[in-house]
């Protein structure tokens, strides 16, 4: 199943991230790619370069140029991950937020791939019983 | 309240391949490594519900498994003193101590994962064992999940895995990435296992579901991992390209009630452009590395022709025929010939395609292959020979073990009988 994670840093600054921060994030993304779960990811530029487009009830459009004022709502980046469960997406997101140094991520299962149903959650309660008998040491 | 068991499940999915790979290098024994990892998991299941999931769960699991390894080693040393005759046979190195264990684990984990893949797909194991072990050790699947995916009893899978681990230990298969020419042969067995998993998901040989997308996902994940670990092997990228592009069509391949929809009838708007793009990028990478003529890259190039065509009518069938020519030369097989015949029929007309298919009818390998009469039926339909087409579809339906596919073939048979042209 695929999830989109939408990252909201909670603040918007014009100062670029430090080199250490960039390196840590680069390493994290590389790890994510190496574990085979990352489908795509990108960061978004400052909201000053963006706009909001809204359709009014009468069918007319209202276009508001950035920057946006509600800092909490501003999206800083996104990722699409291919994982086994929502729990896995949550675990990965915790790791991402630690590297990002704060903020909030919204995790949403993608609708577009109904065929990618997960298996029913595995029951680890009986992991001990599932474990093969210890084999004699050679 | 978020269920801690689910969190543990998730951590296990993420961490278990690396955990087992690291432990396998320390112990030199994949079976023992998995036992140790499982012990750590059991410990986590006991502890984490009380303490919460630790900050760095992977490190916690590794530390726990290492302690267990050291305990075992000490215990076996005591036994060794009593029974010196078995002492030198012990799996753990004689001189191992805590700091060495730490140093061993801190090495590049990626290399360990690659070693684990090569070991799980070692030729000393049967294909079934390679598949089961790969999904178990690298995919983090439970035996139950593997059993359901391949529609076999769980006990069978469990036994396969136990035997596979014993075989590896008995054959003293070294935990390493092979070098030189050996590497190519071994790599192709790793690729073969991943592709087999993908294909079983993409078009299940038996059972109620025609596709099992979760298996496609597992294979894709393994392929993507391998592409990161073996970046300079063009065929790895060829295989990933092939799987990404095939997977891009998953949504379009079945109708509302799970019935198969054939390639040319699919709603291309449902194709996943993100996966297509990933696939085309991987294919370009394979070609850049000089691997355009590898068997997987060629197959990827063929599916890329479909992916690039916005409508079925835009498909470059002549290029597909040329690619099949190259593939047939490289890996001659009646199945490749059959596919080539389909491409020829699309590029140069059904009569020519039928000639090629007819030449395959005496092929023993295709005797019970349902797609031969299915393709033949299709071509006969196009040529207006409906009666013959009908009996081909009936024959094909009797050969497939997949119930969805059977239903589709019987439907085509009915349409042939009713004289409905495609």
CATH fold category name of chain A: Alpha-Beta Plaits
In total, how many beta strands of chain A?
Answer: 6
Number of domains of chain A: 1
CA gyration radius of chain A, whole angstroms: 20 Å
Question: Which parts of chain B are unreliable, with pLDDT below 50 for 5 consecutive residues or more?
Answer: 85-99, 103-107
Total of DSSP H or I helical runs spanning 4+ residues of chain B: 20
Principal-axes geometry of chain B comes out as elongated
Question: Kindly state the mean pLDDT of chain A as a whole number?
Answer: 80
Report helical residue fraction of chain A.
25-40%
Which descriptors would you attach to this protein?
heterodimer; A: 138 residues; alpha+beta; Alpha-Beta Plaits; four-stranded antiparallel beta sheet; two-stranded antiparallel sheet; 3 helices; B: 422 residues; mainly alpha; 0% strand
What does this structure look like?
The complex is a heterodimer of chains A (138) and B (422). Chain A contains three helices and six strands, in the order E-H-E-E-E-E-H-E-H. The longest helix of chain A has 16 residues, at 19-34. The model of chain A is unreliable at 114-138 (pLDDT under 50). In chain A, a hairpin with a 5-residue loop joins strand 3 (51-55) and strand 4. Chain A is of the alpha+beta class. Chain A has a single domain, classed as Alpha-Beta Plaits (2-Layer Sandwich), CATH 3.30.70. The N and C termini of chain A lie far apart (41 Å). Chain B is an all-alpha fold and 422 residues long. Chain B has a domain at 1-107. In chain B, 70% of the residues lie in helices and 0% in strands. In chain B, helix 12 packs antiparallel against helix 13. The longest helix of chain B is centred in the N-terminal third of the chain and has 26 residues, at 57-82. The radius of gyration of chain B is 25 Å and the shape is elongated. Classes of the chains: A alpha+beta (138), B mainly alpha (422). Chains A and B meet through helix 2 and helix 3 of A and helix 1, helix 2, helix 8, helix 9 and helix 11 of B.
């Amino acid at each position: 199943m695929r999830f989109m994670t939408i990252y909201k840093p909670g603040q918007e600054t014009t100062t670029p991230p430090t080199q250490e921060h960039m390196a840590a994030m680069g390493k994290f993304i590389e790890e994510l790619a190496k574990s085979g779960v990352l489908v795509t990811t990108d960061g978004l530029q400052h909201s000053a370069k963006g706009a909001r487009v809204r359709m009014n009830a009468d069918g007319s459009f209202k276009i508001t140029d950035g920057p946006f004022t509600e800092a909490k709502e501003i999206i800083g980046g996104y990722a699409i991950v291919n994982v086994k469960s929502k729990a896995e997406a949550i675990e990965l997101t915790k790791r991402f937020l630690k590297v990002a140094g704060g903020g909030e991520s919204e995790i949403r299962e993608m609708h577009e791939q109904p065929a990618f149903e997960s298996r029913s959650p595995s029951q680890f309660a009986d992991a001990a019983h599932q474990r093969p008998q210890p084999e004699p040491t050679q | 309240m978020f269920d801690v068991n689910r969190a543990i499940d998730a951590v296990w999915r993420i961490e278990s391949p690396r955990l087992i790979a690291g432990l396998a290098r320390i112990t030199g024994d994949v079976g023992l490594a998995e036992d140790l990892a499982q012990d750590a998991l059991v410990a986590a299941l006991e502890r984490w519900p009380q303490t919460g999931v630790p900050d760095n769960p992977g490190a916690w699991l590794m530390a726990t498994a290492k302690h267990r390894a050291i305990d075992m080693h000490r215990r076996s040393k005591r036994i060794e003193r009593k029974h010196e005759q078995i002492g030198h046979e012990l799996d753990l190195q004689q001189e191992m101590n805590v700091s060495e264990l730490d140093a061993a684990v801190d090495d590049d984990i990626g290399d360990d994962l690659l070693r684990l893949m090569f070991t799980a797909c070692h030729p000393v194991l049967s294909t079934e064992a390679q598949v089961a072990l790969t999904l178990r050790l690298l995919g983090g699947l439970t035996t139950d999940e593997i059993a359901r995916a391949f529609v076999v009893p769980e006990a069978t899978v469990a036994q396969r895995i136990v035997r596979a681990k014993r075989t590896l230990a008995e054959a003293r298969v070294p935990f390493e990435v092979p070098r030189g020419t050996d590497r190519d042969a071994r790599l192709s067995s790793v690729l073969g296992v991943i592709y087999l998993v993908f294909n079983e998901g993409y078009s299940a040989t038996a059972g109620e579901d025609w596709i099992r997308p979760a298996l496609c996902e597992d294979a894709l994940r393994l392929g993507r991992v391998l592409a990161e670990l073996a970046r300079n092997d063009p065929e790895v990228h060829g295989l990933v390209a092939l799987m990404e592009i095939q997977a891009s069509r998953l949504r379009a391949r079945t109708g509302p009630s799970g019935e198969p929809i054939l390639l040319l009838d699919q709603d291309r708007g449902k194709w996943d452009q993100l996966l297509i793009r990933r696939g085309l990028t991987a294919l370009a990478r394979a070609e850049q590395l000089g691997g355009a003529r590898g068997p997987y890259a060629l197959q990827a190039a063929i599916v890329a022709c479909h992916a690039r065509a916005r409508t079925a009518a835009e498909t470059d069938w002549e290029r597909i025929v040329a690619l099949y020519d190259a593939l047939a030369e490289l890996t001659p097989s009646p199945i490749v010939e059959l596919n080539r015949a389909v491409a020829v029929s699309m590029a140069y007309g059904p009569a020519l395609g039928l000639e090629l298919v007819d030449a395959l009818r005496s092929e023993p390998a295709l005797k019970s292959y349902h797609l031969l009469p299915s393709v033949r039926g299709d071509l006969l339909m196009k040529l207006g020979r409906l009666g013959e087409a009908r009996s081909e579809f009936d024959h094909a339906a009797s050969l497939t073990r997949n119930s969805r596919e059977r239903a589709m073939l019987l439907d085509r048979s009915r349409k042939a009988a009713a004289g409905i042209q495609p």
